[in-house]
């Protein structure tokens, strides 16, 4: 990496489109060909921050950070008084098994879940105030619909499956000052009517193809017309402010880019990963796993799901001791971004952590067996494939 250099043109650019960013990294990282899809994967894995350029104005709501320690929220729920500063939703008992962050004692029971975007174990975001317009270059925090948008583009470039995901909180962007904004769209009677006309034509074609009796066909068409009338009345009754709602994706006229300083930082990150593999000093690499689908997790989540100690307090203490001296314990490169402090503090790779724990266990140190590490790893978003591949019989 000693011969890494940058062209004069590169030093003048504030940002590069994805294809140019991939070409640049291919030229400065020896024996490596970086593709556009790789840039997206690096961003999804938390190694590189993507930005988005809005050539036209977009409508947004500003995000307000709300701080609530987890212990305080638990005490409020136990007392039956939910903090009004947060948005809450009562989930049925059947829904709790699909959520990774449900306490064990709440499984199989109706469960109150916080609807606000969660930044870490103590901070949430509430999007408030009047809508406003912004433009130019902003960053992607990868906490809402923007992450699904990037994942969708990655799957398209790599021939992956279609995504059937949605983020209720919508797409979010971040200013250079750390301010968060939720992208907004506006209900439009004209756009809805256009969509309705297309659906009405398709409904008529389906009726004809299915040879539905005339009386039943008239009922279907009449029901569709009544639905249109009701929705148009609802849209027209909305005030200007009420007519906006969270956008699920980034605008079609926006462009994903990478800032110049981010590329330089990523080059240094690659160099550090080469010098500092995520293995203990006595690990022969047998249990090291390098997967791309596992999403980085906070230290709190690592402690919550990887239960090395039966007692929760002792488990937290054990993990803090290991993470505090990550270099000596072989955890340094399991940490995303080499331990730089961001909005949520350090993030960690769950798949690498699982490998580290199993290796310790098999060498007679405190850790986890494969049977214990696999179900824990599956609780992290995107880690099912890693758990199946790494811990399969």
Describe it.
The chain is of the alpha+beta class and 393 residues long. 40% of the residues lie in helices and 18% in strands. The protein is built from 13 helices and 13 strands. The strands form three sheets. Strands 1, 2, 5, 6, 7, 8, 9 and 10 form an eight-stranded antiparallel beta sheet that branches. It has a three-stranded antiparallel beta sheet with strand order 11-13-12. A hairpin with a 4-residue loop joins β5 (117-118) and β6. α3 (36-44) runs antiparallel to α5 (145-157) and α12 runs antiparallel to α13 (384-390). The longest helix is centred in the middle third of the chain and has 24 residues, at 214-237.
Write the layout of secondary structure elements.
Elements: H1 8-12, E1 15-17, H2 18-28, H3 36-44, E2 51-67, H4 70-79, E3 88-91, E4 111-114, E5 117-118, E6 123-139, H5 145-157, E7 172-174, E8 180-186, H6 189-210, H7 214-237, E9 244-246, E10 255-259, H8 260-275, E11 297-298, H9 299-305, H10 312-324, E12 335-336, E13 347-348, H11 350-362, H12 370-377, H13 384-390
Antiparallel strand pairs: 1-10, 2-6, 2-8, 2-10, 3-4, 5-6, 7-8, 8-9, 11-13, 12-13
Helix pairs in contact: 2-3, 3-5, 6-7, 11-12, 12-13
Kindly summarize this structure in a few lines.
By secondary structure, this protein is α+β, with helices and mostly antiparallel strands. It has helices at residues 8-12, 18-28, 36-44, 70-79, 145-157, 189-210, 214-237, 260-275, 299-305, 312-324, 350-362, 370-377, 384-390, and strands at 15-17, 51-67, 88-91, 111-114, 117-118, 123-139, 172-174, 180-186, 244-246, 255-259, 297-298, 335-336, 347-348.
